[in-house]
Structure formats: structure tokens, C-alpha cells
Amino acid sequence: MPMFAACLLLAFMSVFSAAPAGAADQELSLFIWSEYLPEEVVSAFSRETGIKVTVATYDSNEAMRAALKQDKNKNRYDLIVPSSDYVGLLAAEGLLQPLNHNQVPLLAGIDRKFLDKGFDPGNTYSVPYLWGSTIIVVNTRLVGAGTVNTLADLWKPELRGKLLLPNDPREVLGLGLEAIGYSINEKDPGRLAAAYNKVKKLMPAVKLFDSDSPKEKLLSGEAAVGVMWSGEAFIVGNEDPDIHIIYPSEGFILWVDSLCIPKNATHVEAAHRFINYLLEPEVAAAISMETGYSTPNSKAMTYIDPGVRNNPVVYPLTSDLARGEFLENIGEQAMNLYNEYWRKLREEQK
Question: Which of 84, 288, 346, 350 lies at a 20 to 30 A Cα distance from 306?
Fold first, then answer.
């Protein structure tokens, strides 16, 4: 953990206090994206509350959704972190339970532009955790600095076998949709077919799909160009001066990941307490600085180091944000079509 984040955690740990957890809620099972929550935050929460947190990770929304469906009679997970497009989908499938807003009073600190969104009106099921973008990262030692400047450049023949893509159907089909001028939330079968055919032509360039830790593949040189989430791009850019980061002129994906409680969660009180803890401004700031993703917590911004707060990869410029589009829930029927095209694309890449 960076020194400034560690010091910040020590500072707020000394002032944060909570009553001991009830005997029935001494545990919490968290199911979250890889490398998405500093261990120090989990440890501090456990020390202050007596609640033992068990963390399991996933590398795609679909993997999380599949595990949640299998979990109906096992009650393994108390808290999950789906992306915006999956919140509405999971709620419609009866896999989430409504939140008790009285137990998360710090929700009031969330910037209103991240609340009451179409995928979860009134934030019935979700609390915004982090947000970010999906952008292009180029290792200019491996490909010329002028080789990739736009989304369309990913289809250049000189990138054959050099490209890394996210392990995610919405993200990958979204490249095709953006490249031909459609919304990333497109549901029309004809337009999705056109996007699939566009991305199919990109498959010779794809070296691998990785949403777990794509930064390692860029830093090692295994991939020369990556389409990846902004937090990963932030870390790569800090570690390698030859990395060039691009917000495509054609547009790019924006997303919000949210905290949700599964329908069959066992430790519901502990889940609410942990959600509220993560909304502490100092905690939210430390998470943003450690992960390189943007916090939706407006009260946390004053605690964020200027080097992060003013970094356009973590907090994009207004001019760049204007070209972004947030992922929304597209419904199960459209999602099934995305997944079918995704299966075909993965077969193309093998």
C-alpha cells in the first residue's frame, strides 16, 4: 500500500469506533472483483467491529452471476459488487434483497449524479462503490507511438497477436458497437449482429482476454496494447513511462460498481455495517488512491492526494467524460444474445 494511503488509514482508524457486533453477525462473506479492496481496509474494519470478513474474488460479472445462481441454497455470500448493468439484471432475477437505508446513513455523501440511476431507481438494491472507464493502453516500446490513437486503430494488421481485451461480453461487444457508431447499451438484434461481425475481424489481433490483472501483461510485454479498466491503466502508467493512455474519440464505456446484498445472505446486519464503513469519507479516499479507480463519494475528495485527484486517468477531464457512456441494464433477453456472440468470439480466438 502507498505510504500516504497507509498513513491515512492509521489516522482514521484511531477515530472510527463501532459497537461490538451481535453474536449472530460476527462474520461477513464478501464476493468482489480481484484487487478491488485494500487488505488494510478489511483488517481495520475487523479490528474495530469484531466482524471477521472472508473475501472471495471473481474476474467477470457473468462469473459472479453464475456463482450467485448456484448459491441459492448455500448462502455463501453476504455482499457482492456487480457493475451497473448487472444490478438491474440480478434484481429482476430475484437474486438481490432491498437495502435498509437507515443502516447506511453515509449514503448521503454520495454524489447525486451516481444515485437513482435507471438500473436501480431509488437505490433500492445498490450503493455506489467505485466508478471508472474502459480505455486503451499502449506500450510504445512495442508498437510505434503513432500506431494506436483511436478505437479504429485496434483493427490495424500490425497489431496481430498483440492485443489484450477484457474478459467481458459487454465490454468486447461494446468495442464493435462504438466502432460502428451505436450505443454500448444497444439491444437491437441486427445492430448486435453487426457489432459481432466487426469484433470478429478483430480476433486475429487478440493475444488474450484478461480482467483479473491485465496490467501485468502490459508491464511484462506479453501484450503491446490493452483495452482495460482505468484503475489498471493508472497503475501501468505510473510504473512505465513508455505507456500511452487513450480515451478514444469514438467513445468509451463508463461504469459504476455497486455494493449489493444477495437475496439469501446470512449476515445481513454485518453487510450493512460494512457498506456504511466503506462510505466513510477517509475510507473511500484510501480505496480510490490504492486501486486507482474513482470514488463516487463527494465527501471523500478532500482526502484524496492531489496526484490522484488531478490524474485524468482516475478522474477524467470533462472533455473526455463527454464522450463516455455508462453501461445500463439491457435485460435478460439481450444479455443472452451478448453471451451467445461472446461464446462465438472466444471460439474464434482459440
Answer: 84
Decide: 135 and 237 in contact? Cβ < 8 Å.
no
Radius of gyration of the chain (CA): 20
Nearest to 256 by CA among 157, 111, 155: 111
Nearest Cα residue to 19 out of 280, 269, 299: 269
204-254, pLDDT tens digit by residue? 999 999 988 899 999 999 999 999 999 999 999 999 999 999 999 999 999
CA dihedral 85, 343, 178, 257 (to 10 degrees): 20
Q: How many CA atoms lie within 13 A of 160 on its CB side?
A: 4
Give me the CATH code for the 132-254+315-349 domain, please.
Answer: 3.40.190.10
> Could you tell me which of 279, 248, 246, 231 has the C-alpha nearest to residue 132?
231
| CA distance linking residue 204 with residue 213, whole number of Å | 22
Distance between CA 296 and CA 280 in Å, rounded? 12
Would you give the DSSP letter of residue 96?
B
Kind plus residue range of the DSSP H or E element containing 341: helix 332-349
255-284, pLDDT tens digit by residue?
999 999 999 999 999 999 999 999 999 999
Q: So where are the chain's domains?
A: 3-131+257-309, 132-254+315-349
Domain 3-131+257-309 maps to which CATH number in 3.40.50.1970, 1.10.260.40, 3.40.50.720, 3.40.190.10? 3.40.190.10
Rounded-to-integer distance, Cα 192 and Cα 173, Å: 8
